[in-house]
Amino acid sequence: MDRKCSVFIAASVDGFIARIDGDIEWLHRPEYECAALKGLNYDEFMTTVDAIVMGRKTLDKVLSFPQWPYDNTPVVVLSHGEVALPQELRSKIDVLAGDPAHIVEQLAARGLKHLYIDGGQTIQAFLAAGLINEIVITRIPVLLGKGIPLFSQFADELGLRLIASSVSDNGFVQSRYQVLAPVDCMG
Q: Is the pTM of this model over 0.85?
């Protein structure tokens, strides 16, 4: 396969990636920061990525960080509307519109073969389009009760094959899955 779309994300045990208002501070508790993490680490994953594809809401969250975290990786923001970018980031961010398959084709034509898909709605759209090849989920030992779900409703059931699973001393459980073809529940 010459193209790959991957998800690398953290979620609460009850499946939320952020609070209702988009807050992700629950990911940065001191007891989470000090433990050695097992499994695929973020920096290792990022060395395999050609570009990050995210939605507008994810961009807004990333822009609230003290510094831009993706200096060495091209970022593509999906939006059908105008996106006001800070002057210093205009050369680092492309804004594209279109269905996920068209976006993947456009980026592959630029030589960007491994895409990191980020943000709840963007992940869901790429999954629904059958474009996600691999999902790495790190479950954080907290129940948020409500929030922005990692997964929503799909048109088809998707099978997953476990590639690896690891448990860190701080209670994080990371599972890495290969996404299989949709399961035909009617046949």
A: yes
pLDDT higher than 90, residue 107: yes
d(CA 176, CA 72): 25
Name the residue among 161, 116, 160, 170 with its Cα closest to residue 138: 170
The CATH fold assigned to 42-127 is Dihydrofolate Reductase, subunit A (3.40.430)
Give 12-76 as a 3 state SS string.
ECCCEEECCCCCCHHHHCHHHHCCCCCCCCHHHHHCCCCEEEEEHHHHHHHHCCCCCCCCCCCEE
CA angle 42, 45, 51 (to 5 degrees): 110
Residues 113-134 have pLDDT tens digits of 999 999 988 999 999 899 999 9
Q: Rounded distance, CA 90 to CA 39, Å?
A: 34
Confidence band (pLDDT; 50, 70, 90) for 32?
confident
Q: How far is CA 183 from CA 104, 124, 159, 162, in A?
A: 23, 17, 6, 16
Q: How far is 76 from 62, CA to CA, in rounded Å?
A: 13
Say if CB 159 and CB 117 are below 8 A apart: no
For residue 7, give Cα distances in angstroms to 4, 10, 15, 53: 10, 10, 15, 10
